[in-house]
Design a protein that fits this description.
This protein is of the alpha+beta class. The protein contains twelve helices and 18 strands. The protein has a four-stranded antiparallel β-sheet with strand order 4-7-5-6, with helices on both faces. The chain has a four-stranded antiparallel β-sheet with strand order 9-8-11-12. A hairpin with a 2-residue loop joins strand 11 and strand 12. The longest helix is centred in the middle third of the chain and has 18 residues, at about 165-180. It is globular, with a radius of gyration of 21 Å.
Length: about 425
Amino acid sequence: MKRALLLLPTTSYRNADFLAAAKKLDAEVVAAANYCHRLAPSWGFPPIMALRFDRPQQAAAIVLRDIGRAPDAVLAVDDSGVELAALLAEQLHLPGNPAHAVSQVRDKLAFRRLLRQAGFPCPEFHHLPNEVDPRSLVPELEFPVVVKARRLSASRGVIRADNAAELVRAVGWVRAIQARADRDARKLGVLVERFIPGREYALEGILEHGSLTTLALFDKPDPLDGPYFEETLYVTPSRLPEQAQRGIRDSVARVCREAGLRHGPVHAEVRLNQDGVWILEVAARSIGGLCARVLTHVLGMSLEELILRQALGQPLAIAGDGSAAGVMMIPTPRRGIYHGCEGIAAAQSLPGISALSIAAEPGQIVAPPPDGASYLGFIFSRATSPAAAEQALRAAHRLLRFEIRPEYQAVVAAR
């Protein structure tokens, strides 16, 4: 029986889907997680269940000490574990990406430097250390700009600024978000780059010996112009002309080669305008949240199964049904405490809606980007055309009513 080491973050949407894929493939799972290292021993958890994913060297040493028989594959379920997975694959002599390459593409500043050095279209950008006043950058900037935390994902810690006052506010906000979310925030600083106009697209692919196979190209029908950049709709196949699609595929493949990525899933975000293809990011992982489920009928299997098959050296036979599909990451309208949702049954009954999953739990604090790190839920559609898939998602969303109450109730003092 093949053996797979899965890095399962405690807050990931995708743990169950990867575990289901392993069961289907009859693969033994060795689970590793990032539960609190102070609490895990009192819960009876072994050290491998209390890894610090953001300390790859330290975590890898614990895994190698405690894992027993070497696995046949190491996979990170989502973004937080990709650097550790790459390091373990190197040390266990398993197929994977070089650890330095994964670290480079995950760091937005390092990735921008890579793009500039390799001659790709790249906006003007600046590194702003934590101790530097953002107003010192103003003479060098062409507004609008975007302030970004360096290693966060899902639009967390990304804010547009159109003038100097907005820049100061955005930098302070992003620094605070990064300080809460990244142990290395103090030394990282933030990235400030010129805003790139245009529409966004996403490419889902898989690398084999450095060769990129495109699994899906997604349109993002909603404009993402800021000041915050909450993802909403992904629809495939893309409605772009074939020449434009080819340009995106070629650009992503070239960036992967320049970055040194060679094996496993790739998720890329790009902007397209009159000046060409602008690569926003290339991540050495698959699409986040539950969005991968939109590809099951496109691939003829779950994306998790396909990734695990490749990692275990099993043959890949992609056989989709040719239908269009879409997913909506249900936007969070405001910060507060989630209490429930009405209209689910009506939304699920609409033509073209294939599934609807509410991810938020009653009592959970929810927030939109740039603070939020999760979604209220996901709506999935299948249709005969991309336009019909998009229309079904929008119609279903209109039927949902979310109850989100303020975190702190106003108190009126008695007279």
